[in-house]
Amino acid sequence: MSQHSSIHWFRQDLRCNDNPALYAATQAGPVLPLYHQEENVPSTDQIGGAGQVWLHQSLSALNTNLDNKLCLTKGLIESILPKLAEQYHIKSVYWNHCSEPWRIKQDAQLKQTLEANGISVHIHNGSYLWSASEINKDDGTPYRVFTPFYRKGCLNATSPRKPLPDASQSAWINAATEGCTLDDLCLIPKQNWHKPMLKGWNPGEKGALQQLNQFTENGIHHYKEGRNFPSQPYVSRLSPHLHWGELSPNQAWHAVEEKAAAKDIDHFRSELGWREFSAYLLHHNPNLQHTNLQSKFDRFPWNENPEHLTAWQRGKTGIPIVDAGMRELYQTGYMHNRVRMIVGSFLVKNLRLHWKHGEAWFRDCLLDADHANNSASWQWIAGCGADAAPYFRIFNPISQGNKFDADGTYTRRFVPELSHLPNAFLFNPWEAPALVLQEAGVALGETYPHPIVDLKQSREEALAAFTSLKDQAK
Ligand code: FAD
């Protein structure tokens, strides 16, 4: 075996194109490709049900791309890596940086252990356009507001590097038989709920590149305005591919170059910028998933109401666009960004349930569930984040529906029991005259729930709760 043999440890970089750590390893010599299922993952970092299903498909695709040489292991990585290194005369281990605080802690310990055993460790940035540590204000402190972070910090820093070549045709060390099988990772649920969920998705690097290609041909041309309409095909739907690293943000950033009008390209890139900002906030606030960034929210009078939480989770709140979003999530593992904001606002403001409930449910149900994006977005919607939506900005689900789903296509798709209601009452069926409901086949409280809260009253209560925070501060 060559003295330059290395291990590339795949984590959230399940691709062969533009993979900095993998590329560097393959340039040095033959590579043992490894994916390891962790033990001892903190409970709030365990991969949710939807994510596990995606991961299974993605690993299968990666293995095919690696000519069936992917070695799968489970247990404790700190014992697996030295064992494989000894057996295969490995001199170096490569991996790409992950943003989750537990990973960062584990990486530091592992690096120390491996280096003490004479194995060199090479950690690359394969998941973000910029490294969080390279972006700071002029006074050296971290940004807390998105626009200056992105416009001043990121766009004035080094331009995102161009994608690196495909490494899939490299010399692989075949240790596949050392490990376990993909089925041994038990990622697929015994009940078959995942099959309908995956319809329309194509996990794996090939699927990611196809999706990117489709987006650069179509969606990007209408992105800036079109991205607000959940029934329109103008968003990229790249988020699970980006989360699992089947596609790098650099590939997405450069693929849109000159593909559309500057306003659409800039807007799409700025959304990638929000992804950077979330990781940046997590880098500077490792407790982002657990602690309000604005500590005054520690005193916020949240409600505890398990019935309301269940109604929200199941899409049975009686507020049609909220129910449509929650059912989209449950059925497809995805929810359009506009609707994520509407359902999020309804949970934390109208129901006044703690944002942590929303974060946890999304973590379990989203195919793109991502520690940094999910925590930062929930803090943003709750008003307690760094550059958050002001608490008093409470989304009105009726006007949001009328504005962003005017013909009701999205809401009717996921709430079919209301499909015969005229548009004028689709988002507020409780205000429809009895005859209109009857003609649409809707019996409130029977075929579709009454609203679980009064929108106007709950809005006023939320504002009063927020004002009480300000008064206490005085
Ligand atoms: P596009 O509009 O095509 O955007 C392109 C890419 O930019 C996305 O794939 C994503 O990687 C990134 N992006 C877009 N918007 C945001 C944003 N606001 N914050 C961070 N990155 C963004 N996104 C996740 O990837 N994982 C999550 O767990 C997650 N949880 C969220 C929870 C809430 C309450 C809210 C309001 C938003 C959340 N988002 C999350 C952000 C956003 O809704 C999704 O990234 C987006 O809807 C994915 O669809 P897309 O790929 O078509 O997005």
Description:
- The protein is globular, with a radius of gyration of 24 Å.
- The chain has 474 residues and is mainly α.
- Helix content is 47%, strand content 6%.
- Helix 1 (20-28) links the parallel strand 1 (6-10) and strand 2.
- The chain folds into three domains: 6-127, HUPs (Rossmann fold), CATH 3.40.50; 130-162 and 205-284, Alpha Horseshoe (Serine Threonine Protein Phosphatase 5, Tetratricopeptide repeat); 295-472, DNA Cyclobutane Dipyrimidine Photolyase, subunit A, domain 3.
- The chain starts with 5 loop residues before the first strand and ends with a helix.
- Bound molecules: flavin-adenine dinucleotide.
- Flavin-adenine dinucleotide binds next to helix 9, helix 11, helix 14 and helix 16.
Quick structural overview:
The chain has helices spanning 20-28, 49-65, 77-87, 101-116, 146-154, 194-198, 205-217, 223-226, 239-243, 249-255, 262-284, 306-314, 320-332, 337-350, 355-365, 371-382, 397-404, 409-414, 423-426, 434-439, 455-473, and strands at 6-10, 31-38, 71-75, 92-96, 120-124. It is mostly helical and 474 residues long.
